[in-house]
Amino acid sequence: MFIIFFCSTGPISVTTVPKGQNVNASYYTVTALQSVVKNVKKKPARLASGKVHLHHQNTSNHTAVKTCQFLDESKLKLIAHPPYSPDLAPCDFWLFPKLSEKLAGINFRRPQDLARRVNSELKSI
């Protein structure tokens, strides 16, 4: 499984979730969001101007107090996701099918190989 953050210019962060790992609020903030903040800080003008907005679904790890505190401390603004609004999750409709199409029929021996290929495909999309 991958946790993917992207913007209009391409992927910001692609985190590979180890097999058997639960993605709870702690894992999400420490692993995935830390990576986003690190990569966004490479473009400090964007973060300082308040132009970084995060949109994610209403799953418990996204709405947990720990996650919300981390977002506040990191100056990332959260765009609300209305309940029962699958049309606001565009990855389900264009990104994931496009990735599946590009990776169809390829067997990867190691998770790292798959992660590299996913990252490469995301950059090309």
TrEMBL record:
Gene Ontology molecular function: nucleic acid binding
InterPro entries noted in UniProt: RNaseH_sf, Transposase-MT_Hybrid
Coiled-coil ranges from the UniProt annotation: none
Superkingdom as given in the UniProt entry: Eukaryota
Gene3D superfamilies membership: Ribonuclease H-like superfamily/Ribonuclease H
PANTHER family with a match to the protein in the record: MARINER MOS1 TRANSPOSASE-LIKE PROTEIN
Protein name: Transposase
Species whose genome carries this gene: Hirondellea gigas
